[in-house]
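Can anyone check this?
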Amino acid sequence: MVDVDGISIHDDTQTPMFAVVNNPYPKIIAFDPRIKKLLSIFQPNQRSVFSIESATKDLSRFIVSFTQTGLVAKSYAVDLATNQVSHLNTPYFGKHDAILAQTWPITVTARDGLEIPAFITLPHNSSNRPLPLVVYVHGGPASRDTWNVGADTLFLANRGYAVLRVNFRGSTGYGRAFQHAGFGQMGQKIQQDIYDATDWAVRQGIADPNRMVIMGGSHGGYASLMGAWQSGRRYKAAISIAGVSDMERQTLEVPKFWELASHSWYRYSGDPRDPKVRQNLKAISPINHVEKFSVPVLLIHGTKDRIVVPGDSYRMEKALRRHGKKVTSLYLKGEEHGAAKWQSRIKMWRKIEKYLVRNIGGRDGGFDYTEIGAAFIR
């Protein structure tokens, strides 16, 4: 079972035109006959990505993006009255379409029997297995990964890594029961799902058990810090981007703009007004288990983050150093919850690239002159 990702409503008539689902591939379900005709022109297959970017009010002309491979989408103008299709644009990196990494949907059976959806991305021509693996954990935790990958995953695959993205219990998009299964399970069964999916990749001969890293942002960063101590030496290193290290603090100090929706966070963490929940939050906070960390950690954080305060990473770094653990850090000046500026993204991904090479191998793209720009251009 999957949820509807979105429904497009006509501005004037207020009637539904089409719906979008990911099951596991993206699909447009047309209600309006003009949308059906539009789809018939392109005839998308299972692995296509088709997106309506804009349209005239009478739905006679459209701007769409389309790809049969799910990777590089070209833009087209379509006139339904004349059935004319005009190619508008192909992204610059479209010339690399044939060698970009492919992604496959998989299903992993968790230790308690729950079926966990996930996606595995393999480097182009990756016949020499097992491969170094990056387990890339999504945020939220009420979010999800989809089959249509982003630039981050393609970058990692280009450097020689298999990339595993796990829609652990509690992820959205797979029905109410699946999401509810993750309530109260942060740091617990949610983590187990991630570990079980990692072990699946090893059993399948995809991942080299001696070359695996866990990484992610926000909740994904938290999950990575948990994996650095909770899963033994399953991973060789962990990368936390704007990750929560103190779950008790994060739950007690809900950001102001979250307050009206704090109950949604409490579904996953528990209500901190309950003393038993407070104790559990302490138990699932990486900052309280620093002495158990068994692998190196890379911490990346924006200095103006208002969702997960940078103090979480500052304190985590100090605590790890105090206990003699291996820790590397990168603090992105002026950035908030992530890396929005191109300069910051270059700095961040070069740091990650070198860190992965050092800990599990893979390919280093080497110096690029854009790094100079990132260092000096404001």
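Reply from J.R.: I decoded it. Residues 48 and 263 are 37 Å apart (CA to CA).
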